[in-house]
Each structure stands twice: as C-alpha cells, then as structure tokens.
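User: Okay, second chain of the day. Same drill as before: sequence in, structure tokens out.
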Amino acid sequence: MWIAVAEVRDAGVVGVVVYLAQAIGVELNQETRPFIAALGVRQEFRRRGIGTLLKTAAMLDMADRGIDGPTVSLVNRRNFPMLTLNQSRFEANVEPDPDDPSDLVVTAAIEPVD
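Assistant: Same drill. Structure tokens below.
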C-alpha cells in the first residue's frame, strides 16, 4: 500500500490518496490490478485540480511499479464531485457495485503517450 499527499504552503496537507495492487479473481494465480482505496481533498481546496493530480500520480506510480491495467476504485453514488472527476478527466466506466448498492465501481485508465 502506498500513500501520496498534496501539501500547500501555510495550509499543510490538503489532499491524500491511498492506493495498492488489489488481487482480483478466485484462482490461485490471481491477477493484480491498480486500486485506489481512498482519495480526498479538503473542502476549501477542491475544484483546483488537486484530486486529479493525486489520482494521476497514483495511477502513474502503479504503472511504474508494473501494476498494469485499468485502475479500479469504489465511489459512493452520492459523491458527485468524485464521479464527475472520474468521468470528465479519466473517461471512466461506472457500474453499480454488486456487493454494496451505495457504491459504484469506477474503472479508469491512463492511455500511454508515444
């Protein structure tokens, strides 16, 4: 598990993202995928691109570590700012979470640039 923080002079930590390689499937040789466990930005610092930067940094760091594939995260269906960020910045796919009706499964990817 890794953690990245965003700091602003005279304000301290204004955002944080927690991310890891999450095993998927039930077979012995489970595939691992990038997974964002938590992402948050202090309310007074939202709408400044900090969440986008944190998510991008986490996705790129996991790719550098060899954890390939789309990044998965769970987002509460009432968290409209995070859903908007994922759909507008990352063109994410959003589906209902089969295990928890209050959450959505968000799958996003960063396309490689040649």
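The radius of gyration is 14 Å.

User: Thanks, on to the next one.
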